[in-house]
Amino acid sequence: MPAWSADxxxxxxxxxxxxxxxxxxxxxxxxxxxxxxxxxxxSSHNSASYQxx
Length: 53
What we know:
11% helix, 2 strands
């Protein structure tokens, strides 16, 4: 598909973004004192998950 149409306008394609119900959020941090990576996964990205992390 060419980037520009014959009349000089940019071609616009419909968005096909879909996250769906099967998503997982990842939280992570590095403990500087000992270099340990701390991670956690959660089914949603909200303050309750962050506080649990």
